[in-house]
Amino acid sequence: SELIRGFLLSGMPCPSSCPPGLLALMAPGLALMATFSLPSQAGDRRTLPVEKPSGVKGRTLILLDVNTKSPVRIISENFLSLQLDPSIIHDGWLDFLSSRRLVTLARGLAPAFLRFAGKRTDFLQFHNVKNPAKSRGGPGPDYYLKNYEDDIVRSDIALDKQKGCKIAQHPDIMLELQREKAAQMHLVLLKEQFSNTYSNLTLTARSLDKLYNFADCSGLHLIFALNALRRNPNNSWNSSNALSLLKYSASKKYNISWELGNEPNNYRTLIGRSVNGSQLGKDYIQLRSLLQLIRTYSKANLYGPNIGRPRKNVIALLEGFMKVAGSTVDAVTWQHYYIDGRVSKVTDFLKTRLLDTLSDQIRKIQKVVNTYTPGKKIWLEGVGVTSSGGMNNLSDSYAAGFLWLNTLGLLANQGIDVVVRHSFLDHGHNHLVDQNFNPLP
């Protein structure tokens, strides 16, 4: 099976030296080894008889001796990485990223990248104020939110001083109130998603501090995607708000890598204004120039263009981008979702034609990248079993494990350097941790 061969021969050393997060994700594959057989390059295969109790149909145990001395590919130590959607600003979960339990779970997946991006990336506005309510001088909707946030801060009674981390043990009543708030906001977010009209999000300096604290304390490297839909009349990128965010992050000496935008091929659908690959490439060159002007980020990594599935129009956008800015980015990124989350059913997760779609997309992306920048690293950013937020009790269950295992093995075998799982917490039903902070299958 291509699935198992790619995963086991991806260049990872023996399980005893693997990071805990990877071992957890390897478990389904190791369990399947008793069923799947590998070609001769994987090592010796021996078939042993198994004693069977009376009345039980006979079975054969296959022992595999996997050769790890000659890897097919060497992948990044951050191969398995995570994503957080900016919607956590809307529904309030950002304020709970200091939870000791969340940080502990995330630490188990380190080292990894934490990509802060999603559909609402291009509606994100940064405001360098600590307290928006007080800056307006009186009560209002944000005033009550501020009091709610103050309660959260006061509950940070157990601080982990290691590396200056702020880690909290939030009272159960506060988590219950947050779940109620998130449930109400979830309806708003769903309405935005299905109407394809998104409201602006405000990221304050205080919120950015919380986001970075979570990443840093968890041993994750933050990748922040800047808003690419702030445009000048001539359709060039307006970098003023991004510059404000960069300067604030630099003043705090935050170690961050950067991106610009999310799925630029969908901009016409989102706002009725498209951005072609050539213009997007110029925007990335502009961002690279900004980073070089700020000492803290003069050598920071820049990734992009984070396109969607490589259909004909998307390939054209990628080609235009690579011609102009292929040498500007440190890795070329794209997204992949196997199934439309609104129509998926459990049998969809076992269809081999779905497994084959990813392989075809990898070839298309590699062909364009190698044409313009041979050897450039390629990442799969924003990958999930289903799109549209996923399906409850399907995309967040063991049923999705086969597609996920196939994704890991295929990407490793084909030389894709990093895969970013969407999402760590609270985005539809593709997430890894539920609202009780319990890990999902």
Rg calculated over all Cα atoms: 23 Å
Overall pLDDT: 80
The helix/strand series, from N terminus to C terminus, equals HHEEEHHEEHHHEHEHEHHEHEHEHE
**Number of domains as seen in the coordinates:** 1
- What fraction of residues sit in β-strands? 15-25%
CATH-defined topology: TIM Barrel
Euclidean distance between termini CA atoms: 23 Å
CATH architecture: Alpha-Beta Barrel
Number of helical segments with 4 or more residues: 14
CATH domain class: Alpha Beta
What structural class do the secondary elements suggest?
alpha/beta
**Which word captures the global form?**
globular
Strand order of the largest sheet: 3-4-7-8-9-10-11-12
Helix content: 25-40%
CATH superfamily: Glycosidases
Low-confidence stretches: 1-43, 132-159
Described by strand count, sense and barrel closure, the largest sheet is:
8 strands, parallel, barrel
Count every beta strand, where a strand is a DSSP E run of 2 or more residues. Answer: 12
Protein name: HPSE2 protein
Pfam families: Glyco_hydro_79n
Organism: Centropus bengalensis
GO molecular function: hydrolase activity, acting on glycosyl bonds
